[in-house]
Write a structure and sequence with these properties.
It comes from Danio rerio. By secondary structure, this protein is of the alpha+beta class. The chain is about 25% helix and about 40% strand. Helix 2 runs antiparallel to helix 3 (about 275-295). Bound molecules: 2-acetamido-2-deoxy-beta-D-glucopyranose (5 copies). One 2-acetamido-2-deoxy-beta-D-glucopyranose binds near residues 30, 32, 134 and 164.
């Protein structure tokens, strides 16, 4: 640890002391990568006299506190230097050292990996540079939902998650801006994504289309459209009407079977049956289930 401090101290002071002949540079100073993806942060350094003695230290210096990621000490990897947050996710691509490149490969990126990274390279002299990494996540396809809100209204709801945050814009079939009438709430998920739920109340009888749009840095990432009133679901009680209808049909089947059975049985005993009596029964069979269907659900 002491040695790291000395090297960092040297690195910080060196450029002030004399214009160094040994320099570290970065081909790119900012990187953007996706959640769960990979990234290779690269520092290049000027040629060394004895490359086997090289020391490379990668750490994240912002946000605080500093996080140790990788340490090659005079050509020897110090394995216990890597902080648990980067355990098994950080690696130096060692064969690139010969090309004077100190490339840190980060895997399975997390939103929290975003920040400023620093590479320190020491040969005979020492220098360092910093690199910014932003880990982002595109917004997921919108989850729509719809619920009754009062007598004449329905509440439309659009839900999506991503990073960084998005603006939600609402419009109708005539491209009217309805954002002012919507209500948007923002929360954080376990993966540090931003979960956005936006709601808009509309009249249930008015024929129209309503669209919610998730916009990140001026770009449309996701949209969803509701067609009203087509998409308004059947009343909650509709389910019970269906269950009721099924029960009625089952009862009707049983009833008819009993009648048929009786008729067969009856025929064996007292044949022939009067004709108009049979007709009357058949009429009853047809009407009864329909009548039941009408009154059953309201019980
Ligand atoms: C890291 O490992 C070295 C030996 O490889 C040991 O001397 C040192 O104490 C260890 N440091 C920590 C912080 O565990
Ligand atoms: C990285 O994120 C910061 C803060 O969110 C932002 O200001 C910056 O523009 C982003 N950089 C890139 C390259 O996207
Ligand atoms: C829509 O209206 C909201 C709130 O009035 C406003 O902030 C937003 O800029 C408007 N968007 C467009 C595209 O007109
Ligand atoms: C938005 O929702 C919150 C909480 O559900 C509520 O307190 C607030 O009145 C709503 N605002 C509007 C404009 O509907
Ligand atoms: C709603 O959208 C559908 C499909 O895009 C379209 O056919 C219909 O005319 C639209 N209705 C209104 C009222 O804008």
């Amino acid at each position: 640890m002491k040695r790291t401090l000395v090297i960092i101290f040297q690195a910080l002071l060196w450029p002030a002391v004399l214009s160094a002949s040994f320099t570290v540079n970065v081909p790119r100073s900012t990187y953007e990568a996706e959640l769960n993806g990979d990234v290779r942060l690269e520092c290049v350094f000027s040629a060394l006299k004895r490359s086997s003695d090289i020391t490379v230290i990668w750490s994240r210096v912002h946000p605080k506190p500093d996080v140790n990621i990788y340490w090659l000490d005079k050509g020897k990897e110090i394995h216990n230097h890597t902080s648990s947050a980067f355990h098994k996710r950080a690696q130096l691509i060692s064969h690139l050292l010969r090309e004077n490149r100190a490339v840190l490969h980060l895997k399975k990126l997390r939103i929290k990996d975003s920040g400023t990274y620093q590479c320190i390279v020491e040969g005979d002299e020492v220098d360092y540079k910093q690199i910014t990494l932003n880990v982002t996540a595109p917004f997921s396809p919108v989850r729509k939902s719809l619920r009754k809100a009062g007598e004449d209204e329905v509440e439309l709801s659009c839900e999506s998650q991503g990073f960084p945050s998005a603006q939600v814009y609402w419009s109708d079939g005539q491209k009217l801006n309805l954002t002012l009438f919507s209500n948007t709430s923002v929360s954080s998920t376990d993966e540090d994504l931003i979960l956005i739920v936006s709601k808009l109340k509309v009249e249930r009888e008015l024929v129209n289309n309503y669209t919610c749009t998730f916009i990140v840095k001026g770009e449309i990432q996701q949209t969803a459209t509701f067609s009203i009133p087509e998409e308004i679901p059947l009343h909650g009680s509709a389910l019970f009407v269906w269950i009721g209808a099924v029960i009625v049909v089952l009862l009707a089947v049983i009833f008819i079977s009993i009648i048929l059975h009786r008729r067969k049985y009856g025929r064996l005993r007292c044949e022939p049956e009067p004709r108009d009596h049979q007709d009357e029964k058949r009429d009853g069979e047809e009407k009864w289930p329909q009548n039941r269907a009408l009154w059953y659900p309201s019980v």
